[in-house]
Amino acid sequence: MSPTAFGVLLVVVSTMVEAFGQIFLKKSSVDAERRRRWILIGVAVLTAEIVLYSGALRFLAVSTAFPITSLSFVMVTLLSRWLLGEEVAPLRWVGVGLILVGTSLIVAEA
Amino acid sequence: MTAGARVPLRLVIGLAVAIALDTGLQLVWKTGIAELPDTSSVWEMLVAVALNPIFALVALFMGAQLVNWLKVLDHADLSYAKPFTSLSYVTVCVLSVLLLGERIAPLQVVGILIVVAGVWCVSQTKRTTLGSSAEGE
Description:
heterodimer
């Protein structure tokens, strides 16, 4: 695997890890009895995400890595539906799709 | 589909604060990274981070962001709240133009409009679908 491909893989994995971190933070609000535990897990996972992303920047330019991070909006929506059982209305999907395209355009040109 | 008009003020403020903190964090973070030494040693990098007060500010922003975000999530679906944070891409871009005098590319303007349209779509969906304690506020 080329260093660039490895870097891209790391960024994609980091967006998935971020989505899981967000799920744990939301869990803290749904499962009030274990609120503190969920927050701690969430913060730990989000810290791991920062480490992964920083690692990816050793293989990729920020201008390549940053647009990929907008995938996290899609990941968070998918996991909210699968793991939390949130209802994602079609219009919400349309919004997330537009956001994915729009944020990519903003940062790709920056 | 409920209209965005029924969103409680507390949630609107929470989302606005989240975007503001995210924007501040990104700008401060950028400044901090630019000041780091050009070294491949992880240890040297960690020492430089620890010694630079700007990273204390980064940590402060992150802490405030966590506290505020947990409050936001008490009042909305994660899949409702998270898309709003994409507006920080817009604010960072606009502030870079206003404060740093950077030029904005035509495609970035298109991107900004698309993001705003996307957030508007999300804002038109039900903010909570889990039937949790957030009802009736």
